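Researcher: Go.
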Amino acid sequence: MAELATLPEYMLRNAVEMAGEPAIRLKELGIWKTYNWAQYANQVREFSLGLASLGFGREDKLGIIGTNLPRLYWAQVAAQCMGGMAVPVYQDAIAKELAFVLRHSEAKVIVAENQEQVDKIISIKDELPGLQWLIYCDNRGMTGYDEDYLKPYSEVQAAGRSFDSANAGYFDAEVGKGTASDVALICYTSGTTGDPKGVMLTHDNLLSCGRIFAANEEVRASDDFLAYLPMAWVGDTVYGLVISLLVGATNNCPEQPSTVMRDLRELGPTGIIAPPAIWEGMLSNLQLKGADATRLKRMIFGYFSGVARRIEELKFDGKAIPLGLRLAGTLGEFMVYGPVRDQLGLRRARWCYTGGAPMGPDTFRFFRGLGINLKQVYGMTEVAGLVSLQPDDQASPDTVGAPCAGIEVRIADDGEVQVKSDGVFAGYFQQEEKTAEAMSEDGWFRTGDAGVLNEQGHLVVIDRAKDVGRLGDGTPFAPQFVELKLKFSPFINEAVSFGDGHPFISAMVAIDFETVGKWAEGQGLPYTNYMDLSQKPEVVALISDEVRKINHGLPEVSRIKRFLLLSKDLDADDNEITRTRKLRRGLIAEKYGPVIEAFYGGQNEVELRLAVTFEDGSGAHVDSRMTIQDAA
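Model: Structure:
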């Protein structure tokens, strides 16, 4: 039997072959509501025909903004049923960011979650000449709006039912026109060096990567996934929507972003993918709970954590595990590892992945030691989110695994990782020059990452090629290496290191406000806000001690000589990081130029006026005086 060509075709197959099986769930008012595949397909059918009644058709673009909701996933597939393209955007983006993406993508229809998102779109409507309809899912608060382009989701579905009655066979005919080469998704990059680029991904791009992942990992129709990552991130589409349609697995949408960890524990997914920040947050919470526990519990947790670490190191080195250590590990499973996995919601998880950014080796080994099958996956938007991943018995913090079968990887003469596969994108929307720059002359995608293939054929990614530099004496310097070490501390949320062309390494550190706040409360230390807390002498001493510990484990050349505690956290609204928490290094270097000058000019203090942006897009300035510390 020939493989199906488009995502809607897989949905319709599931509606026939798995009609009564669960397809997607939503937790609402504390109760999980389940939709089976027959209901899923009917919801999509009604909405897609409703779009058709509004004039939406082939090659039109449908913007999507909101948290993970069944209606928003159905809207994505509905647009594709009519031959259109989905354009999901980050729900926490400010109006200015939304205006660029939605204008550039020529969105004709936008589906918004609720009143908050509707208000954002209305505020930029004059900047969106192509926008004809704004559809909202949640009716709460939507009385009193008189915009003629506004429609509730349910009304569009009702129009779809009427359209279906008057146009028998229209839906099946439109789905039948779809081909594997049709663009299914325009996914905008995070824009670390400028405006985001619209990555056009075809059905073939998405399905080929989905098939490769399913072939390399044990994915079952009975699997449960938690749909909590931003819908604008390609990983949510490929490892959620596409895999669900491909194998019939169930996507589960949490009640709201603030309940994700609680819903994770309640659901107990069978597989999960999360960026390093999520895993680091889990680790910080465990460390905090450990610090608050009784002396006996701290001793037990510390002992068995050490046992797990030694066992994992021996496994990694391919060495035999002594009998005594094996017995201690068995006891640790009963007393520590199993209960911790259960508390995290990962007792049922057969596989867990981290991707999107490097993870510190200490964090990686910690979770592996708990019996969590954590592995690394490497990919990016332009290759539909998949290049390489790690088999169960070859998980390592030092590589991102072997390139998957069907995906070719080579290292160019300048050290850049280049990729060729069916997942390589169809190009950047309306940016042919950028598309040409991203491809080599012989048709390989240029990732922009510096890396090597080791003796086992596994890919080792060093850093972004443009970020790798050298210290003043010529010693190679990879900023991410230092930053990952710093971020292993539960008290440090973000770090930016400098050193290219300079005699030593320095760093700006942003504290973890919640973790340091709890520590301060335990010390009886009063504070008012982030700025006040971060500049407390006691907090400076705390972070100084953390930097000292980190330096102790680094080679001399990589040690941090000077650092500074930022008076505000790095924020996507202020263009310091992307929505996926990647550093905008160029903008940071420009904005914090006086700090860099002070690091290498021997100054002990620096005054800085920083622009801050609020959620509504308005701005203000904050003046602060920060002290530069000499690291031990």
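Model: The radius of gyration is 25 Å.
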